[in-house]
Amino acid sequence: MIARRIAIHAVQAGLVFALLALWWWITATGQVHPFVLPPPMAVLDRLGKLLASGTFWSPLSITMWEFGVSFVTATLLGLVFGFLISRRRLVVRTFDPLLAALYSVPMVLLLPLFVLTFGVGVGSKIALGFVVAFFPVVLSTTTAFLTVDASLQRAALSMGASQSQLFVRVLLPASLPMVLSGMRIALITSLLSILGAETIASLGGLGHEIFARVEYMQTAEMYAYLAITVIVAMMINGLALWIDAWGRRKFS
Amino acid sequence: MSQTGFHAGQADGPDPIIVARDVRQSFGVPGTPGHVVALQDSSLSVHAGELVCLIGPSGCGKSSLLNIIGGLARPTSGEVLVKGRPVNGPMPKDIAFVFQESTLFPWLDVIDNIKTGLEFQGVDRAQLEDRAIEALKVVGMLDFRNHLPRQLSGGMKQRVQLARALSLDTDIILMDEPFAALDEQTRMVLGEDISVLLARSHKTIVFVTHSLVEAVFLADRVATFTARPGRIKSIIEVDEPHPRSREFMTSEKLSVLRNELYELLHDEVRRTMESAERPMAQAFA
Question: Which chain B residues have a beta carbon less than 8 Å from that of A159?
Fold first, then answer.
């Protein structure tokens, strides 16, 4: 088993190394103009300087602020609305199809409207992140509460559980895995939407920086920012996957 | 030994602990195609310390009657008295349930499952641990107290469910086909445990089952149901003290009673099959 795991990691590391080697070969042989694709060492050099100088903190904190505010508010409202909707079958039948239809709208199309309404700065990104994150949370929460095993609820009531005990001790933990899955989707899609929106119209943030470096013809620095963005996105995604897996392992 | 006819539901002797009077349950509006009578007017009295089995074809309303007695469902008409008081909802101080499916909370280990039930019932926090351990000892599951439900076999889960019901220390336990999903051997062993428990604790148990042998082996009285729309057809008495031994399982007495029960149920089961699966019934004819 351990041998197999080592083999898997070896293949993965080999692939990454091969891509880097290919990159190096393309730039070294002059296949592509260094303005479009600078050599790996130049990018690494810019990345090192960027990290050392700390200038990346400002765009990173702008993106994280937009992401944090939109994700937290969308999740809280999604949970509350999802729970309230799930309480009555009739309300579910009324609102669930509407929410599902809205969920299928590509929210990034609303960006021009948000820029018009909330300005080109942080506000429009928070608005976009919010609408992207809200729908998966509210839909998964509604379904999660609706599909809690009725026999668990019956058992709890037969043992004398009050309504608040039923909610906190049975409904909440039983629906947690599905709620967490919805939150994970919300987390990733809202982060991606915010980064994308920043490259289209913004005053700051990682996406803004990536676009601006190209405008200023500093492609090596653009790649360095790209690397930072990928690392941050991977860390957030990894954390979300871990919490999601934990929820499923523990509560179902 | 068998007592059939109009007064079948009325047990003799003084103040029964459970009295169901003309209990009826139906769904939908009468006169419309959606109208279903799950249980026709049924009456049943159960005395303290007695184990009564409810047996009948699928859909005959035996589980409905159990849920109505336990306050988990409301009858369309009729009433149930438990200890002389009308049932209007769950009575956690008097009635505990053991369900067919596992209703253990999958995110809690065995002992926390039992402690949670006790907390719901309103037991003082200081007593939770001792009460839970005591109940787990009785069913022989103490060594598994820190296991999660998914780490247990079907039989072990049902033992824990039984422990949870016992820990609540109610006079009455209602069991809805608790062993239906288990294999024959496990079912026999758990049946013997229930009989021992009954002899020791003077609990009152109403037990829904599909198994003729299980019914005769466990019950002091067996109430048989007619096909849907069900009502209690007759009641058979099993005059054998608890705890019942393995010898009783293989005795002449048990098989005679079992056959008698089979005769009573045979026509009803056939009727259920004919109304539900006509081609099947013809193939058997």
Answer: 90, 92, 96-97, 117, 120-121, 164, 168
